[in-house]
Every structure is written in C-alpha cells, then in structure tokens.
Design a protein that fits this description.
Blueprint lengths: L15 H26 L3 H18 L8 E3 L4 H37 L2 H6 L2 H14 L1 H9 L11 H20 L8 H16 L5 H11 L4 H8 L14 H4 L2 H29 L4 H23 L4 E3 L1 H10 L4 H15 L2 H8 L3 H25 L7 H16 L2 E3 L5 E3 H15 L24 H5 L1
Helix pairs in contact: 1-2, 1-3, 1-8, 1-15, 2-13, 2-15, 3-12, 3-13, 5-17, 5-18, 5-19, 6-17, 7-8, 7-17, 8-17, 9-10, 9-16, 12-13, 12-14, 12-19, 18-19
Length: 463
C-alpha cells in the first residue's frame, strides 16, 4: 500500500538514475538556506554542508528509516551563535550548540517517560509564536546592514551599488516565490542568490580571486591524482579537544545564550513533524515517535557542534519537495545527505560561496527573516489564540518588547541573559504563573496528533 498515493513510499528504493535526480532536487531545495546561516554567523559554509548531511543521516538512523526529513542549518540560532561567538569565539558557540543538542535529548527522554502534555503546558502557542516573531524581527537590522553598507569597514558607509544589488536580489526572490510553479517554487532562495550574484558581477562587487585560484590549481595539475587533490579539499573543521578545549570556553553566559532557544526550535520541530505526517499520510508523532525524531534532531546538532557547523533543524523546503513530488523515500533523502557531504569537500564550491557579496545575502535575508517573523504570527492565527484575553495579550506583548527591544539581565560582569533567550524564559514563566492556562492553547491543534491517510503500510508492519 502506498500512503497518500505515493510515487515512492518511505522504504522504496528508486532506480539509480532516478535516485540521483531526486536526491539532487532535495540538495537544491536546502542549499540556499543552509549556506546562508554560516555566511551570517561567520562559520564555514563547507562545514555546514558536511554537518547537514551527516546530521541528516544520523537522524534517519535514529528514526529507524521511517521519517523522510532533511536537516539543515537552523535560522533560530543565528543571533545566539553570533552572540556566543562574540563572547567566547567560535569554540564557545560550538559548546553552546552541544548543550542545546543535549536539551533535545533530555526532552526526548521526558517525552518517553511522561508523554507530551508537560511540553504542551511549557510551550503553548502564545509563548512560541511571539518568540518566533522575535527571532525574525531581531535579525532585521542584520539584513538591512548587509544590504545597505560596504562590508569590511568599521564605520558604516552607505553604498547605493550594494543596496541596488540587495533590492534586485530581493525582487528576484519574490518573483521566484510568487510566479514559479512546481518544484522550482521551492527554490526562491537559491534562485535569488544566483540572480543577485549575476547582477553583482555586472556591478563589479564580486571578488572572484579565490575562484580563479581554485580553477588554476585544477587546470595546472599534471596528473589525475593531482586533479582530484585540487578538486577535493578538507573543510575547516573545528573539533573539540583537537582545536580547542571545551572546558576553557564553557560559561554560564554561553548556556543562557544558547540553551533557551532549543525549547523554541523543539516546538518548531513538532510543527514540522505534524506537517510531514499529513503530507506522507502517517502519524510520525506516534511511530516511530516524537521522542525519536526530537532525539534525531538533537543528535544532528551535537554532530554539527563537533565539526564546527551551525545547529541543525528539519527543513520545511524539503517537506515541500515531498508534497509536490510524492516521493517519500528515505533513500532519496539519504542520497541528498551524501551529496551535501561531497559538496562540502569540493574546494570550488567553497570558493564560489565565499565570493557571494554580502548585499546578495542581505537581499535574500530581508524576505527570509520577515517570513520567520510571519510564521510566528501564523502560529498564533492557526491556533486561534485570542489576544482579546488579557492573559494572552500580556504574555505576547512582554515577549515581543523584551526580545525585539534587546533587554538583558546582567547576572555578573561577564554573564548576561539577553534578547530572545530572556524573552523566551520570561514568556515561559508568565505562562506558568498567570491564571487561565487553558487560554494559552487556543484550539489545541499545536500538539494534536491526528493525521489523515494510512498510518502504516505493509513495509512498516513487516519491520
């Protein structure tokens, strides 16, 4: 039996030529967003690709090959990674990512022991929705600065050239989002980056020196082995106990910066699992279980922290690919993960990504960060949160002003609880102490585990 008239079901193995093509589709769908996060945070895009691929493979193993989800760089952690890197360098951000991954593991264990009711009470839509809005709008100034100013200069210098590149990139991305159909409608970020990059070339703001150097190394190689050596290069991994000592960089500040965000991304993960369940026609929250999918997501983030990549999360873009193609095979997802790892080891891809002007990424970010904020608003609407209720209005208002306003608590000279972490913690506390908790859930759909379609197919029963 094929769930929801699937072209390929979850355990089906496609023919090799179809396998490659279908996997490349998923690679293209996630590529733009996955490289944007390291670009903004100062991490290595090639490492992000490798950690994305390895994290996805680990996720597939942990979920027993039953959940066709792809994991890429998480946008929710952009500001925390930047803050943690400023406080303790990239090693500090990696330790924070590791701790956030452990939170996933702890939540998975608690779900195994006590179910999901406690999580629903801790993270209702009235808390998660406004925090997601904070995540998006908190990054707004980053997108505008990248779009308007000349990069690499301490004092902000306005550039009409850079801003025009950003606006053209934004326009191309919007056109791709609105007018492209089918699979190509899932690639607006990638299309926007390519289009903006092309326009930036004509404006003379693309530094192609590294690309030329990579090409020269390939063409000057005097043997097949030499060519392979020039094409494939080791990414700039940052490995604990090899490149740094975690004990030297861990701090209370890092914990407060990174760990609270994991609670929000866990709620986002549950939403993705619900959508994925509806697309595929199985209840993934029950089988293989929400505990396994959350554990897989956390494991992917831990793996990323061991390599020097950004935290990972399940990608809505790839869920969209599943919905359009009706190809639910985990082998296709696994193939995309393998391709991502291979791309991470190709030096030319690193050179091309590194040459993308910040104005191009800024143009894409204007739309993308706004979409993140809008998704938080959509969560409030979809769950029918009544802001006419004083309780809900108070919680959402406090979260928004504290998070977007940049409030912080100075714990010690070196420790702050700031921004979205503080707003998330205060939102959770307010929800727990204010009366009328039932009003925080709206229509209660956020954790509702019903799903249309077949819940199991013969291959699952056989397993």
């Amino acid at each position: 039996m094929k769930s929801n008239q699937a072209a390929l079901d979850v355990r089906d193995v496609p023919a090799l030529h179809k396998w490659i093509t279908l996997s490349l589709q998923h690679l293209f769908a996630m590529f733009g967003a996955t490289i944007l996060v390291p670009f903004l945070t100062g991490l290595s895009p090639s490492v992000a690709l490798v950690s994305s691929g390895t994290g996805t493979l680990a996720y597939l193993v942990i979920t027993k090959g039953r959940v066709p989800a792809y994991l890429g760089s998480s946008f929710a952690f952009i500001a925390p990674v930047i803050a943690a890197s400023s406080a303790s360098g990239v090693p500090g951000a990696m330790v924070g990512s590791f701790l956030a991954g452990l939170v996933y593991g702890l939540v998975a264990l608690l779900i195994t022991m006590f179910g999901t009711d406690w999580l629903m009470n801790l993270l209702p839509p009235v808390v998660v929705g406004p925090v997601i809005i904070v995540i998006g709008l908190g990054l707004a100034t980053t997108a505008i600065d990248m779009s308007m100013y000349v990069p690499g200069i301490d004092d902000q210098v306005y550039s009409s050239t850079h801003f025009s590149v950003a606006l053209v990139t934004l326009a191309i991305t919007i056109i791709a989002s609105i007018f492209f159909k089918g699979f190509f409608s899932l690639l607006p970020i990638l299309v926007g980056i390519v289009g903006g990059y092309s326009f930036a070339l004509f404006q003379g703001i693309v530094d192609t020196a590294e690309i030329k150097a990579e090409w020269a190394a390939i063409t000057s190689a005097d043997s097949f082995t030499g060519v392979l050596g020039a094409i494939f290069q080791k990414p700039d991994f940052i490995v604990p106990f090899v490149d740094y000592s975690p004990v030297d960089v861990i701090s209370i500040e890092i914990i407060f910066i990174m760990v609270p965000i994991a609670l929000v991304t866990i709620a986002e993960h549950i939403g993705d699992q619900m959508v994925l369940s509806k697309v595929v026609g199985r209840n993934f929250l029950k089988e293989p279980g929400l505990n396994r999918s959350i554990l897989g997501d956390g494991t992917a983030t831990v793996i990323a922290s061991f390599l020097g990549g950004p935290p990972n999360t399940t990608y809505g873009e790839n869920i969209g690919v599943l919905a359009i193609t009706r190809v639910f095979s985990v082998f296709v997802i696994g193939g995309a993960a393998v391709f991502a790892v291979l791309f991470g080891f190709i030096g030319m891809s690193t050179a091309v990504i590194g040459s993308i002007p910040s104005a191009v990424m800024g143009g894409v970010s204007i739309l993308l960060f706004g979409i993140i904020a809008s998704s938080g608003l959509r969560m409030l609407i979809d769950n029918q949160i009544d802001l006419g209720e004083k309780r809900n209005l108070i919680i959402s208002s406090v979260i928004l002003v504290i998070g977007i306003g940049g409030a912080f608590i100075q714990v010690t000279d070196n420790v702050q609880i700031a921004g979205m972490a503080l707003s998330a913690l205060i939102g959770v506390v307010l929800n727990l102490i204010l009366p009328g908790k039932e009003k925080a859930h709206g229509n209660g759909k956020m954790f509702k585990e019903t799903v249309t379609g077949n819940k199991k197919s013969n291959d699952d029963n056989a397993a």
